[in-house]
Specification:
The complex is a heterodimer. Chain A contains nine helices and eight strands. By secondary structure, chain A is α/β, with parallel strands linked by helices. Chain B is extended. The chains are: A alpha/beta, B mainly alpha. The interface between A and B is large, with 36 and 36 residues.
Chain lengths: 276, 119
């Protein structure tokens, strides 16, 4: 059964991981821009990163029949210097017409600071101006509940101020048991990240589907340079299968839902585009 | 003990059969962790130093939630471990997170839903 991993940081993974994901049935991925584990020293560092996301990684993925897509931003962990962050935001438009760019992401908050909030608003303004979809990162651990609510209030305020933002084109990621209901009730799409320790396990994600349903929600591995598992999505599917969930339910959360949301971009594909 | 609407394809005995061993191991891990903290030497010479760490306070409160007989334990423990504030902070003090709110004194935070459901 084919699946989509809609949030995975392949720049941090080996080519062996592409192969293992392909063997497990992965046909398409999306890779949001994120924190590399260190602060980049100049906007040029982000220019190079965006080049990797829009050129290098699609080629690497295509070798294994995986369609690669991306989202661009400066992540909230590097947003504490607003002047620097705005310089990075200024170079994003140069990349927005590249064929694998789906929108702005993963923007959001990390420690819920004023500077992070200012840069979140700047990203949302860019997305609204260009009518782009948005992928939102919510904070880690003790900061998640507060940050998720701040993010939803910020988006609601932008919409009240005539922004073109549409919650149906925004996915709020890394939800857990204490945030999933509010995100779905707000009309947003919700993402569950499957991490060994710090987010949802495959078992808890299956529990959340059982408690909150399977509408407007997906699962992802967010595989990156930290403790994470690029095969987390097929492992969650296997957990659901072992519990007796229907094959169509499993396909819905791991293929149909991400395809439905991502297809709103007009650029999402589940097949690798032939290159000349 | 509260009862919640069945929503799992597995019946209760199948859930217990399948997951008991995994969670037996996890609760022994918690017990061993608390024992390890007690056995560790104090860095200050005060034998009680560190035992009131906000993370340990939060963990003890979370264990109480496990035993209160009410449903949605995972949601309520996550809320208990969360910063209950609403306003942005002035500056980010670090990039990482500790896993528990450092202002936690005890008791259980109540969610919006809980507040609406009670007087």
């Amino acid at each position: 059964m084919n699946y989509i991993d809609p949030h995975v940081h392949m720049v941090s993974r080996t080519t062996d991981d592409y192969e293992r994901m392909a063997l497990a049935g992965c046909v398409a991925i999306t890779e949001p821009a994120f924190w590399a584990g260190f602060d980049r020293s100049s906007p040029q560092g982000f220019f190079d990163y965006f080049s990797v996301l829009t050129d290098t990684e699609p080629k690497r993925a295509a070798q294994y029949g995986i369609a690669h897509h991306t989202w661009l931003c400066i992540n909230p962990k590097e947003a504490e210097d607003p002047g620097f962050a705005r310089e990075v935001i200024d170079i994003i438009p140069e990349f927005l017409d590249r064929p694998n760019v789906l929108g702005i992401g993963e923007i959001g908050l990390n420690k819920n600071s004023r500077n992070e909030l200012e840069i979140l608003e700047a990203h949302l303004e860019l997305a609204a101006q260009r009518d782009l979809m948005v992928l939102v990162h919510t904070p880690h651990l003790e900061d998640k509940l507060k940050g998720t609510r701040m993010i939803m209030r910020t988006i609601a305020a932008a919409i009240r101020n005539q922004s073109r933002l549409d919650p149906g084109r925004i996915l709020i990621d890394h939800v857990e048991e204490h945030t999933v209901r509010e995100v779905l009730d707000g009309g947003f799409w919700a993402g569950m990240t499957l991490y060994p320790d710090t987010k949802c396990t495959p078992q808890r994600a299956a529990d959340i589907f059982e408690m909150h349903g399977t509408e407007r929600i997906w699962i992802n591995s967010a595989g990156d340079w930290g403790p994470s598992d690029p095969l987390a999505v097929p492992k969650c599917r296997e957990e659901m299968r072992r519990r007796g969930h229907l094959a169509e339910t499993i396909r819905k959360v791991s293929f149909e839902n991400p395809r439905e949301f991502l297809s709103q971009s007009g650029r999402f594909r589940t097949e690798v585009q032939p290159t000349r | 003990m509260s009862t919640t609407k069945p929503s799992s394809p597995l019946d209760r005995s199948a859930v217990i059969d399948r997951y008991f061993m995994e969670h037996r191991a996890k609760i022994i891990d918690v017990a061993a962790f608390l024992d390890r903290v007690e056995r560790a030497a104090s860095a200050t010479g005060d034998p009680l130093a560190g035992l009131d760490d906000f993370r340990l306070r939060s963990l003890r409160a979370a264990i109480e939630v496990l035993l209160d007989g009410q449903s949605e334990r995972a949601r309520r423990i996550l809320e208990l471990l969360s910063d209950p504030g609403e306003a942005a902070i002035e500056r980010a003090p670090m990039k990482g997170a500790t896993g528990a709110w450092d202002g936690f004194e005890g008791g259980e935070h109540r969610s919006e839903a809980d507040r609406e459901a009670s007087p």
